[in-house]
Write a structure and sequence with these properties.
about 400 residues; alpha/beta; three-stranded antiparallel β-sheet; globular
């Protein structure tokens, strides 16, 4: 969850949505995102809405305790049930992210999932994921999660090289994420993801290849690989500004992406979103696809964002303020916006173009269609899907995805 909240109109104290938000809801899947804002230490590159123990001392510290957190999230889930009324949809996906969700006891994560099950029910084929820090789980913890209904897990690996992890301020030891994959498989997890980051200052091509090979060799069925973004206000940004570590340029990012796509393809991983590869359709992250396809999800937790039927809202950031709102019977929502038809069209183009299936050409305006024809001629869009009425990025197009989509949304 980003650390900066957008502007917007006030959120009603009871969290009520405009009547039109649930029109046609039965045709859209419903997911839940549960944000756990706690971290043992702060990674130098992280700009998410997270807090270490020392950052929570003082005002609101008692309310923000990890010991109370599962109950607070369960309370927001009960609020969601009231707001969504008689919406009959069972929940299709649940994703617990952070922060470090596995700083909570496994029983707390299961308790939060249980609240969703009790209030909404889970689809028979529901995807239930949690993120995990490799150093904060063991076989017993993973077995408890699996027995409690989790069937997908995502480990933050980032790199297999110690010096790269050090620049990122990651505290796990090389080799531990790979061991976690084996432990998760032994616990019965059907789907396992590893997250990687490329473009860290001081990382070489050989370092990146070693990380890719280690990740693939561990046996996950999904890998996410993201270019490092240096966010203002982070420790890493300050170190780069002081000249302590170099800044990685866009050409290096492009080279690393090409290496990744080649290595993944050779290992049987297919891309299905610009930064995500899976060994099968079943291995794709369905929860993230809810975001990319503009479906409905409720985000519970400090700073979490939600979207239902063209209405987007976001919660207060601080765990103490979040707990106080729920304790007073109020929605923890800080603000919201009602998206116009044009807003939703633009978002569909922005997000769906990143997918392997691409975006329908009929969503483009005349200027966007003209830009798509130029992108096709320049080899940024694939010819065959284009002839079938869809804009689909080529490998070269994926390297320039941000520029392509800027042209197509006009």
């Amino acid at each position: 969850m980003p650390s900066v909240l957008p502007d917007g109109e006030p959120m009603p104290e009871d969290g009520a949505l405009p009547a039109h938000a649930l029109e046609g809801a039965g045709e859209r899947p419903l997911g839940f995102y549960l944000h756990v804002p706690y971290c043992a230490t702060r990674c130098g590159y992280c700009d998410f809405n997270t807090y270490t123990a020392s950052e929570l001392r003082g005002a609101g510290g008692v309310l923000a305790s990890r010991d109370n957190y599962a109950g607070q999230v369960a309370e927001e889930i009960r609020l969601a049930r009231k707001v969504l009324g008689d919406d009959p949809r069972p929940v299709r996906t649940v994703f617990v992210g952070g922060g470090t969700p596995t700083l909570l006891a496994a029983g707390d994560l299961v308790r939060m999932l249980g609240a969703i099950r009790d209030e909404f029910g889970l689809a028979d084929d529901a995807e239930v994921t949690t993120e995990a820090n490799p150093e904060s789980v063991d076989p017993a913890y993973l077995a408890e999660l699996r027995a409690g209904g989790f069937n997908r897990i995502s480990f933050g690996m980032q790199s297999a090289r110690q010096h790269v992890l050090k620049v990122l301020d990651r505290t796990h030891t090389p080799g531990r994420p790979e061991a976690c994959v084996a432990e998760a498989r032994a616990a019965g997890f059907e789907h396992v993801n590893l997250d990687l980051i490329y473009g860290t200052p001081g990382e070489s091509d050989d370092d990146w290849r070693a990380s890719l090979e280690a990740a693939i060799g561990a046996g996950p069925d999904h890998v996410s690989a993201y270019a490092l973004i240096v966010e203002e206000g982070t420790q890493l940004a300050r170190r780069i500004r002081r000249g302590e570590v170099p800044m990685t340029d866009d050409d290096v990012h492009a080279d690393r992406y090409l290496i990744a796509d080649s290595v993944f393809a050779e290992a049987g991983f297919d891309w299905y979103e610009v930064s995500n590869w899976a060994t099968s359709e079943a291995g794709r992250c369905l929860h993230n696809e809810l975001y990319w396809r503009g479906a409905d999800w409720w985000g519970a937790g400090p700073g979490a964002h939600s979207h239902v039927g063209g209405v987007r809202w976001w919660n207060v950031k601080h765990p103490g303020a979040y707990a106080a709102a729920l304790g007073e019977g109020r929605s923890p929502g800080a603000g919201r916006e009602v998206l116009s038809a044009e807003d939703r069209r633009v978002e569909r183009v922005l997000l769906e173009l990143r997918l392997r299936e691409g975006v329908e050409l009929e969503l483009l305006k005349p200027a966007g269609l003209a830009a798509s024809r130029k992108a096709l001629a320049d080899g940024l869009l694939a010819a065959e899907p284009y002839g079938e009425g869809r804009a689909v990025l080529t490998l070269r197009g994926r390297l320039l995805a941000d520029a392509v989509v800027r042209d197509l949304v006009d």
